[in-house]
Specification:
Length: 429
């Protein structure tokens, strides 16, 4: 997801086309059993942390019972206004999680028809992208990486973040798009739901087809009955076998700590128009059935340009407090090539241990002398013409990829000839 608007594309015009397109672009030749050869080029506890669970220590005289797994106390729900009922309703109704039961007044047949189409789409996406990309990426990813992940320009893309970092405990995605108000699901009328579900199938089709979200998808959904960020995140949970635990919204204090939006905040803001600014940033907690602890996704709607960060540095203070992180980005309209985004680029170079991206990640000239090297996989003949493209960085990446074998899936943008490719930025010798 980019931090600047992408070129707009029209919605899939017909329902049949939306279903057909949902995964058409994800068909891949057989994957390599091992990653192709890589080119290396030198080129205090606060609300911002996941809720920790207490561990019960067995008594010293517990005997054989002491060898049993330690019991975990229930997690403490985060404070603030609770939008978990809306999250669960969207997960069931729009993303077809759980029993996808229709709410009162909505025909179950409508939901069943929607979910039948999505079930086939999820299955195809898993077969053609997840089952190919995840084993490949797992061979690239070293052991012992931080389980805190930062994904700039990554709105609406929890699905590939979980594929890239399946052990993530805390994920922060940042893009221009707000998380948006989830309450449109409350009492939704059948005709409005029909339109919303049609749009969801079309928008998810673009997400799964291209293996990245687009600003126009998220922007349209953020203005509709069901917000794109939440819908896309719920679809990711379904695809990876998770379920929502809680949904809260938050703002940043001046020191970067988060402050959850309260019922009092909503009341003071007045009507929904006045409350809109309170739904910029969302915290979604989720887990697999049977897991003792939940994971955390925080989506932050924020302009990451240098000019805005100079005026509003709270997000950078928040990120810096995390310490060392793992990172990813893709389909980022080449913003990390652009010196108008040098602050977030410098943050990554200072705090990341390992990063995976397409070529919209950090270019070779910016890692020189910083203790990082690039490893590349796939083919790259030049950039897609989105955002701040320049010949120097394009040429440097082309040189790195010279002579490499193709990979069988896309990770973010393809190159100008539709080749998939991956860039790993890691600590060098």
């Amino acid at each position: 997801m980019s931090g600047l608007p992408h070129p707009r594309t029209a919605l899939v015009p017909a329902l049949a086309l939306a279903a057909a397109a949902l995964f058409a672009g994800c068909s891949n030749p057989p994957s390599h059993s091992n990653p192709p050869s890589a080119t290396t080029a030198t080129s205090s506890v606060d609300a911002a942390k996941p809720v920790e669970t207490a561990t019960a220590k067995p008594p010293e005289d517990a005997g054989t019972d002491a060898a049993k797994p330690e019991a975990l106390a229930p997690e403490t729900p985060p404070p603030g206004a609770d939008f978990t009922p809306q999250a669960i309703a969207i997960w069931k109704l729009a993303a077809c999680g759980g029993d996808h039961a229709a709410p009162p007044g909505v025909p179950q047949a409508l939901v069943d028809s929607h979910c039948k189409e999505l079930a086939a789409s999820y299955a195809e996406y898993k077969r053609s992208w997840m089952d190919v990309a995840m084993p490949f990426i797992a061979k690239l990813r070293p052991a012992g990486l931080p389980e805190t992940v930062v994904y700039p320009f990554g709105g609406g893309d929890l699905v590939s973040a979980l594929a890239t970092y399946p052990d993530v405990k805390e994920l922060t995605t940042i893009s221009l798009e707000p998380a948006a108000d989830p309450r449109g699901i409350d009492g939704i009328k059948t005709n409005d739901l029909i339109r919303a579900l049609y749009a969801i199938r079309a928008h998810l089709g673009k997400l799964f087809l291209k293996a990245h979200s687009r600003t126009d998808n998220l922007d349209l959904e953020s203005k509709g009955a069901l917000p794109g960020e939440i819908v896309f995140s719920m679809a990711a949970l379904v695809a990876h076998g998770y379920e929502p635990v809680s949904l809260r919204y938050f703002r940043f204090e001046d020191d970067g700590k988060i402050r959850y939006v309260t019922d009092e905040d909503l009341k003071a803001a007045g009507d929904k128009r006045g409350q809109k600014a309170l739904f910029q940033n969302a915290e979604l907690r989720f887990k697999k059935p049977g897991d003792a602890r939940s994971r955390v996704l925080r989506h932050v709607g924020y302009d990451l340009s240098d000019g805005n960060l100079k005026l509003r540095p709270q997000i950078m203070k928040h990120l810096e407090a995390k310490g060392k992180v793992s990172a990813m980005t893709k389909a980022a309209t080449h913003l990390l090539w652009d010196d108008a985004f040098s602050t977030v680029r410098e943050y990554l170079l200072t705090h990341m241990e390992w990063m995976i991206s397409d070529t919209t990640g950090i270019p070779p000239r910016h890692i020189k002398g910083r203790g990082f090297v690039h490893e590349v996989y796939g083919q790259y003949d030049g950039p897609e013409p989105f955002g701040s493209v320049n010949g120097r960085d394009s040429g440097d990446f082309k040189a790195l990829f010279k002579g490499h074998d193709p990979i069988s899936f896309r990770y973010g943008y393809p190159d100008t000839h539709s080749h998939g490719h991956i860039v790993v930025t890691k600590k060098g010798p």
